[in-house]
Design goal:
Distance between the termini: 22 Å
Number of strands: 11
Helix content: 10-25%
Largest sheet: 3 strands, antiparallel
Organism: Physeter macrocephalus
Protein name: LIM and cysteine-rich domains protein 1 isoform X3
GO cellular component, one term: cytoplasm
Family: Belongs to the Nth/MutY family.
Structural class: alpha+beta
Shape: globular
Number of helices: 7
Main location: cytoplasm
Strand content: 5-15%
């Protein structure tokens, strides 16, 4: 967040402190609250719109730009077309039926509601992004933690010199081309297959499942699909996650598609591919450039004084 946004967010309660914090009090340069010492993500300072703009910026100018939409009058600015899912279940209460409505703040794009619900049921309940629940706050905290805005937008970094600005822009351009990815949800053996009108194709009843090769083409019948992380079998009628950068011969259980460094679920299936495994944005960037433990930005020569002040504070 910019300093102006931090100032406007004063008083936002801390989700970690559970009432112990008097409200967000921005530090002058560290990404934390002066009141409780917790990080910005623990206060969920950003709005849904700001989060969608951030992901839209990340995905634009990449092969995943179809997941974004142009903002009217935004001079080329794009916003994330976040897929939400609403489930309405009738509840019999005497003569007058009522309805229980559940809204998921995010759901896998390009799938049927049935497959999307199956996917959600395979995620731990406390991590399901249902509106108004801890799972929805958990998603937003991960979004802030895994995809820091200053890792993709040089204008959000403090004091960049002209040569550093150019180097940062090139760094972002490179990881968008070589590492950035968005996981795809499908039934085992159906990863990489064309979708009809943006909806996941259902496997015909009685049809044998074919295993795609790494370029998405079908190689032949396969009896068993195995999760890359836990090595457990993926049932033929249960959704899995595919990574196009890994190749469609590999799949993950929904709960197993996590960052190889921190083991946290990858927010909205956004990953960075490196060393044969998916990483979250934060740890991917840290694996290439060190991060200042004070201001949380990627380390540059003019961070040395900040680091000393951080250690003394």
């Amino acid at each position: 967040m910019s300093l102006g946004q931090q100032q406007s967010a004063r008083g936002v309660p801390c989700l970690r402190c559970k009432g112990m914090c008097s409200g967000f009090e921005p530090h002058s340069w560290r990404k934390m609250c002066k009141s409780c010492k917790c990080s910005q993500e623990d206060h969920c300072l950003s709005s849904d719109l700001e989060d969608d703009r951030k992901i839209g910026r990340l995905l634009m100018d990449s092969k995943y730009s179809t997941l974004t939409a142009r903002v009217k009058g935004g001079d080329g600015i794009r916003i994330y077309k976040r897929n939400r899912m609403i489930m309405t279940n009738p509840i019999a209460t005497g003569k007058d039926p009522t309805f229980d409505t559940i809204t998921y703040e995010w759901a896998p794009p390009g799938v049927t509601q049935k497959l999307g619900l199956q996917y959600m049921e395979l995620i731990p309940k406390e991590k399901q992004p249902v509106t108004g629940t801890e799972g929805a706050y958990y998603r937003r905290r991960r979004l802030s933690r895994q995809l820091p805005i200053y890792d993709q937008d040089p204008s959000r970094c403090r004091g960049l010199l002209e040569n550093e600005l150019k180097a940062m822009e090139e760094f972002v351009k490179q990881y968008k081309s070589e590492a950035l990815g968005v996981g795809e949800v499908a039934l085992p053996g159906q990863g990489g297959l064309p979708k009809e009108e943006g909806k996941q194709q259902e496997k015909p009843e009685g049809a044998e499942t074919a295993a795609p090769t790494t370029n998405g083409s079908i190689s032949g019948p396969s009896k068993e699909h195995v999760c890359e992380l836990c090595k457990g079998v993926a049932p033929a009628d249960s959704p899995v996650v595919y990574s196009d950068r890994a190749g469609y011969s590999k799949q993950w259980h929904p709960a197993c598609f996590v960052c190889t460094k921190c083991s946290e679920p990858l927010v909205d299936l956004i990953y960075f591919w490196k060393d044969g495994a998916p990483w979250c944005g934060r740890h991917y960037c840290e694996s290439l450039r060190p991060r200042c433990s004070g201001c949380d930005e990627k380390l540059r020569c003019n961070h040395d004084l900040r680091q000393i002040l951080y250690l003394l504070s």
